[in-house]
């Protein structure tokens, strides 16, 4: 299998399975950075892609920068949240090699924790340095106990950018319940893919790196039902997102009539008012 980025490969990093999929958004951001009119302008993604080769062949997406738009939308919501909660705890779940901590540049009063699988955090440490208020945590999101080591606070923001698709819906429910049970209030920002998009993504990643996307969302009511303590406050369909350049938005206008394209990837925002949900007690018991 070829291991190369868009512009050719330095030494390989041995990531397999779900962990290896971090290359997909990373290369999309590097490509965006090198484009004449970047959406995200993520110099760190470009730096990382130039210094390490990750398995990418076979996972190539179309040229439409949907994953970059997804990151930009999530960044915008994160900034809005932090503008209101300067002392929040941010849990960036399944961070991969993403540079959100640098793009958002939270104030030092924020505690920001990037969480991912041990092999990913080991690689991540080559490119990022911990500081007061910023740390990296190696854990599986499906483990119940990692959250116990995270400082409590007045508000929490859980972010998952291209991650929850890899978990079972019950695992997402238990994870968010555990997080929200620990803080008086909070928000969760994450994306979901419909069955059509999930099927297409699985065709690419299963053969290429042995990863599996498990959670398809066709009806947002099914997500609401998983998060009984949460109120959905935002939905952005990537094909209509304000960060998507007009040259893509005009052709995507037909998606109004094509639900499987229209709802392929949606970014969701939930507010948790603070009453621990039923599932939280079960999840922390
Ligand atoms: C498609 S990548 C997205 C990475 C990053 N959020 C970004 O946007 O660049 C999916 C990420 O989810 C992580 N992931 C998947 N399952 C996980 C689990 N059970 N625990 C922790 N991380 C997980 C993978 O290691 C990978 O970094």
What is the terminal separation in angstroms? 45 Å
Radius of gyration over alpha carbons? 18 Å
The total count of strands amounts to 7
Largest sheet: 7 strands, mixed
Please tell me the overall pLDDT.
90
Strand order of the largest sheet: 3-2-1-4-5-7-6
CATH topology value? Rossmann fold
The CATH fourth-level homologous superfamily: Vaccinia Virus protein VP39
Primary descriptors:
Rossmann fold; alpha/beta; disordered C terminus; globular; binds S-adenosylmethionine; single chain; 285 residues; disordered N terminus; 38% helix; 12 helices
Characterization of the model:
With about 280 residues, this protein is α/β, with parallel strands linked by helices. It has one domain (about 65-285): Vaccinia Virus protein VP39 (Rossmann fold). It is built from twelve helices and seven strands. The protein has helices at about 15-20, 25-35, 45-50, 65-85, 100-105, 120-125, 170-180, 195-210, 220-225, 245-250, 260, 280-285, and strands at about 90-95, 110-115, 135-140, 155-160, 185-195, 230-235, 265-270. The protein has a seven-stranded mixed beta sheet with strand order 3-2-1-4-5-7-6, with helices on both faces. Helix 6 links the parallel strand 2 (about 110-115) and strand 3 (about 135-140). Helix 2 (about 25-35) packs across helix 3 (about 45-50) and helix 7 (about 170-180) crosses helix 12. The longest helix has 19 residues, at about 65-85. Residues about 1-5 and about 275-285 have low confidence and may be disordered. It binds S-adenosylmethionine (SAM). S-adenosylmethionine (SAM) binds near residues 116, 162 and 163.
